[in-house]
Design a protein that fits this description.
Blueprint: H1 7-10, H2 12-19, E1 29-31, E2 38-41, E3 46-56, H3 67-84, E4 88-98, H4 104-120, E5 124-132, E6 138-149, E7 164-168, H5 174-177, H6 179-182, H7 187-196, E8 199-205, H8 209-220, E9 223-226, H9 239-244, E10 250-255, H10 260-270, E11 276-283
Parallel strand pairs: 4-5
Antiparallel strand pairs: 1-2, 2-3, 3-6, 4-6, 7-10, 7-11, 8-10, 9-11
Helix pairs in contact: 3-4, 3-7, 7-10
EC number: 2.7.4.16
Pathway: Cofactor biosynthesis; thiamine diphosphate biosynthesis; thiamine diphosphate from thiamine phosphate: step 1/1
Family: Belongs to the thiamine-monophosphate kinase family.
């Protein structure tokens, strides 16, 4: 009998695949596990989005980081996923895991940071939970709801062969430059692209293009081709870092080649300050090689 594999040996994507059959659903669930958010039926002509995310000290931020930036990032990560579905964020529940010897001022700073971002996007922080930790550390988990017009949520699984691939913003160097703490979730950009009906698939780039793009391609049953010379690279970094660093929180978008000019006009009109760059296309052939992005449990 072979030994039971460890989580490290299995990897995040394979672990999720093993867990999916253990997750029941009901008639209200429209889109379940495997996308940036779950989509459920709601009232009227809106659908409800559900998302949960967390930040862990030593992984998503370093000890000594400004508490307000920690709180901001904890909420902004979940908001970025709502944006990737083309939705509007609504209500947050916050669970705080912290060692009892941490100063109260650190917790207050975390909530000030979350509060500032929440007010920026019209989000209510509706409650949550707190728990001590047996050893020193800090973890924040955020559950966030959002909404989107019925039938307008943009999924990872709906790209088509020949679609063009584009990204918002610039990529690479997010952690060393501090961008991972100060990024602005692309709610406006995602909402415009979803409402237009031109985006065929969309997701946010949290683990890096080299990890997240293969996930979108696999969900859509396709391959992809990236033109490295087209990648919008943050100054001072390389195309390999743009593909592999992660923590960018930009949008990865696909659309039909014939809509290229319409999408460009849409971007120029509604979010002219946000770069929007075509970097490749979806294919039926095996995917082109990319430097791997972040892999949980590795």
């Amino acid at each position: 009998m072979e030994p039971d594999p460890t989580i490290r040996q299995t990897g995040e994507d394979a672990l999720v695949a093993r867990l999916l059959p253990l997750m029941p659903s009901n008639a209200f669930l429209v889109t379940g596990p495997g996308d940036d958010c779950a989509v459920t039926r709601s009232s009227g002509n809106r659908q409800l989005l559900l998302k949960t995310d967390c930040v862990v000290e030593g992984m998503h931020f370093l000890p000594g980081t400004d508490p307000e930036l920690i709180g901001r990032k904890a909420l902004a990560r979940a908001v970025s996923d709502i944006a990737a579905m083309g939705g509007t964020p609504l209500h947050a529940l916050v669970t705080l895991f912290v060692h009892a010897d941490r100063p109260v001022s650190q917790v207050e700073g975390i909530y000030r940071g979350m509060g500032r971002l929440a007010r920026q996007f019209g989000i209510s922080i509706a409650g949550g939970e707190s728990s001590g930790l047996p050893e020193d550390g800090l973890i924040i988990s955020v559950a966030l709801t959002g909404e989107v017009a019925e039938g307008k949520a943009v999924l990872r699984s709906t790209a088509r062969a020949g679609d063009l691939l584009a990204v918002t913003g610039v990529l690479g160097g997010s952690f060393p430059t501090g961008h991972h703490l100060s990024f602005i979730p692309r709610v406006r950009e995602g909402g415009v692209l979803a409402a237009s009906g031109l985006a065929t698939a969309m997701m946010d780039l949290s683990d890096g293009l080299g990890t997240d793009l293969p996930r979108l391609a696999a969900a859509s049953g396709l391959g992809f081709r990236i033109h490295a010379e087209l990648l919008p690279v943050r100054p001072g970094f390389t195309a390999a870092q743009a593909a592999g660093d992660g923590e960018d929180y930009e949008l990865l978008v696909t659309f039909r080649p014939g809509d290229r000019e319409r999408v460009a006009r849409l971007a120029a009109e509604h979010f002219p300050e946000t770069p929007f760059t075509v970097i490749g296309e979806m294919t039926t052939e095996p995917s082109s090689a990319l430097p791997s992005g972040y892999r949980h449990f590795n």
